[in-house]
Design a protein that fits this description.
Blueprint lengths: L2 E5 L4 H5 L4 E3 L3 E5 L7 E5 L5 E7 L5 E7 L7 H18 L10 E6 L8 E6 L2 E6 L2 H20 L6 E6 L12 E7 L6 E4 L5 E4 L14 H11 L5 E6 L5 H8 L2 E8 L2 H14 L5 H5 L1 E5 L2 H10 L4 E6 L11 H17 L1 E11 L6 H15 L3 E8 L17 E7 L1
Parallel strand pairs: 1-4, 9-10, 14-15, 14-17, 15-16, 17-18
Antiparallel strand pairs: 1-3, 2-6, 4-5, 5-6, 7-8, 8-9, 10-11, 12-13, 18-20, 19-20
Helix pairs in contact: 2-3, 4-5, 5-6, 8-9, 9-10
Bound molecules: S-adenosyl-L-homocysteine.
Length: about 400
């Protein structure tokens, strides 16, 4: 028998509607003294079964729901849930229209109905992030099951590395942790085929997040999908990280590609990747790419002052708003970036612009970009609304899961 949580009558609705979080303020009573991290059964005020999840009194989100069925959370349950998530990716990436990729998100936490657990695949290695106490307690068993379930889908995993070095763990009373969970230590660099022949370098141990930004894979592919073979482009890749968009641009029609990022290590990898794709002996090809370590805000002001012009500008900044309280400041940041980006685009050129702040809705982001456009005196059309790749599904009952939004605009 598990311990029991009773939800306040006026706070039952979100639980019944399958929102996975129960905040401390929604709880009327905690019975049978659950230990932190333990599985609990959630009951209505009248004693009806509502859900089962895990408990952490240290967190504002005291319960995260794992199931809305009256079923045990045991190894068999875990195996079924992991299979469901992995089956989706195996289906998504066995498409006849696209070259296969060996890097994608296998488990997308709440959005795969597995709160607190992120697992990314980079070739033969998996990277696991445990964001909550229960997942942290279970991570070794989960790692073992992952290897077994992956094997059933013909995915032979050589090792699983933990990258739980994220601030949100503090809210669960956890320290940050990294290290090998299982199998072999991953190599310094893993080259992943990111939906096309372009190979992107990933440093699992020291890279950002789990090593790379898999959520942008489909949008990088758009360079091929939309722009290849139409004409040559001068591309400004702002917040380039290890080259992502710039590498695709170079492979599919880029003439001059400028990558700007504050991270020296990321830019070095971007350059290494470029040498991997093109023949270093061909001076024309290699001369066409630049790697500039700079603050993008400052870089843009200078580039506008110098009257630089590009065919395509990509703007993929880090998260500016970490909470609702930071939305106004973040909005000013996004507006500043997009205003200057508009000024740098040739008539008939494109802007691909993003926000990965969960606190900024798709509507608000579009309004901010509209404000920037109005101030720039330019005209623009929306060619496409952009979001994260398909391997980052969003649970329909969990709107918080939709953090990445973007616009592809044609600018005049
Ligand atoms: N577009 C990339 C991911 C970008 S992530 C891809 O497709 O892989 C955001 C990047 O912005 C990180 O690499 C980080 O180093 C960089 N960054 C953060 N703040 C910055 C700033 N003010 N100026 C320049 N780069 C910055």
């Amino acid at each position: 028998m598990t311990a029991t949580i009773i939800v306040k009558p006026n706070r039952e609705k979100p639980v019944r509607n399958q929102h996975p979080w129960i905040f401390s303020g929604a709880i009327a009573e905690v019975r049978d003294n659950p230990a932190p991290g333990e599985i609990v059964t959630v009951l209505s005020h009248k004693g009806d079964f509502l859900a089962r999840g895990y408990w952490n009194p240290k967190s504002q989100i005291q319960v995260r729901i794992l199931t809305w069925q009256d079923e045990p959370i045991d190894e068999d349950w875990w195996r079924r849930m992991l299979k469901r998530a992995i089956a989706l990716r195996r289906e998504l990436y066995i498409s006849p229209d696209e070259p296969p990729t060996n890097a994608y998100r296998l488990i997308n936490a709440e959005n795969d109905f597995l709160p607190g657990l992120i697992v990314d695949r980079y070739s033969d290695w998996l990277v696991l992030q445990a964001l909550t106490l229960h997942i942290d307690q279970q991570k070794h068993q989960i790692a073992q099951l992952l290897v077994e379930v992956c094997a059933e889908y013909d995915l032979e995993i050589k090792g699983i590395y933990e990258r739980s070095d994220v601030d949100v763990r503090g809210k669960e009373g956890l320290q940050q942790e990294t290290g090998l969970l299982l199998g072999d230590v991953p190599p310094e660099l893993i080259w992943v085929g990111d939906l096309a022949r372009v190979m992107i370098p990933v440093d699992i141990r020291r890279g950002h997040k789990t090593g790379g930004y898999l959520d942008q894979a489909r949008n990088r592919w758009l360079f091929f999908d939309l722009f290849s073979m139409s004409r040559e482009f001068d591309v400004l890749n702002l917040f380039s990280y290890t080259g992502g968009f710039g590498l695709f641009a170079a492979a599919f029609g880029g003439r001059r590609i400028i990558n700007v990022d504050s991270s020296r290590e990321a830019l070095e990898l971007a350059e290494q990747a470029m040498l991997n794709i093109f023949d270093p002996a061909d001076e024309d090809e290699m001369k066409s790419s630049e790697y500039i370590q700079a603050d993008v805000f400052e870089y843009l002001r200078d580039a506008v002052a110098e009257g630089q012009q590009f065919d395509i500008v990509v703007c993929d900044p880090p998260k500016f708003a970490h909470s609702a309280g930071q939305v106004d400041k973040a909005a000013r940041g996004y507006k500043d970036l997009n205003l200057n980006a508009f000024k740098l685009i040739k008539s008939g050129g494109y802007l691909m612009t993003f926000s990965c702040s969960g606190a900024i809705s798709r509507d608000l982001f579009q309004k901010i970009v509209f404000g920037a456009l109005a101030d720039s005196g330019r005209q623009a059309q929306i060619i496409r609304h952009l979001g994260a790749s398909d391997d980052h599904p969003i649970a329909l009952t969990f709107p918080e899961g939709e953090y990445l939004k973007g616009l592809l605009l044609r600018v005049y």
